[in-house]
Specification:
Blueprint: H1 22-33, E1 40-41, H2 42-49, H3 54-64, E2 73-74, H4 85-95, E3 99-100, E4 112-113, H5 115-118
Helix pairs in contact: 1-2, 1-3, 2-3
Length: 133
């Protein structure tokens, strides 16, 4: 995927016309490969790319991620993106992404991702099967 993308923020804020930095384009390409119902952590994406780290991936997703399924790039602990929990939860439920019930003492009782079952390794079970070696 190397088409030009424009976006205004990681969660669908207003559009901004700008050419993407190469690293951001690469991050968005990986996010596009993650199959529905599966997730990769920010660190997984950086490792898959062999470049940068979780913070760099997070920054690219925050600035440009609305052009891709942003809810599939997540925190390693499975907590939902702060401020966007309900939007992400709707996507997870629609896609059948494995979730874990929230503890009763958790604020808002928002579930977490079941990382053992939802995490995608970048090589099996999706449209990216042949894309990475």
């Amino acid at each position: 995927m190397s088409e030009d993308r424009t976006s205004g923020g990681g969660t669908g804020d207003g559009p901004v016309t700008a050419e993407l930095p190469l690293y951001a384009e690469r991050v968005l390409d990986v996010a596009d490969l993650i199959p529905p119902g599966r997730v990769m952590t920010y660190g997984d994406v950086a490792e898959w790319l062999g470049d940068g780290g979780p913070r760099q991936v997070g920054r690219a997703m925050a600035l440009y991620g609305s052009a891709v399924p942003w809810w599939r790039v997540v925190r390693a602990d499975g907590t939902l993106l702060p401020g966007h929990e309900l939007r992400a939860l709707g996507h997870y439920r629609e896609e059948g992404t494995p979730l874990r019930a929230a503890p009763r003492e958790a604020e808002g009782h928002v579930p977490r991702l079941d990382m053992k079952r939802a995490r995608w390794d970048g090589t099996t079970g999706g449209q990216g099967d042949e894309a990475h070696s």
